[in-house]
Amino acid sequence: MKSYRKEIWFETKSRRELINITPDIEKCLSESGIREGLILCNAMHITSSVFINDDESGLHHDFEVWLEKLAPEHPHSQYKHNSYEDNADAHLKRTIMGREVVVAVTEGSMDFGPWEQIFYGEFDGKRRKRLLVKIIGE
Domain residues for 132? Predict the structure, then answer.
């Protein structure tokens, strides 16, 4: 069995962003030489997320509105955590959206359903953060 590991770094321009990382993961898969196996992608920070969904701008807007209703950023004073920091909402948003995805690999390609893409979700950005890609298989 082969194993491949790579860290991908991000520095977002805004506090919250959704980034389609599917091309980055496809490049990792190609580099790995693995044709049958599994890909694990996980956020290496507790205020960012990795998830699978459709790459459609209206849906991305809906995620932002929905997440802000569930865990509003302001007022910062609503969160006990924010007596030390100002990012409690980002921790909660990450919990909702998830830490990682696992994707099956068959004949050198990711097994996706229609419209599925992999996203990195940043909820407390404007600084360097990373994503781990681990691929195992034959």
Answer: 2-137
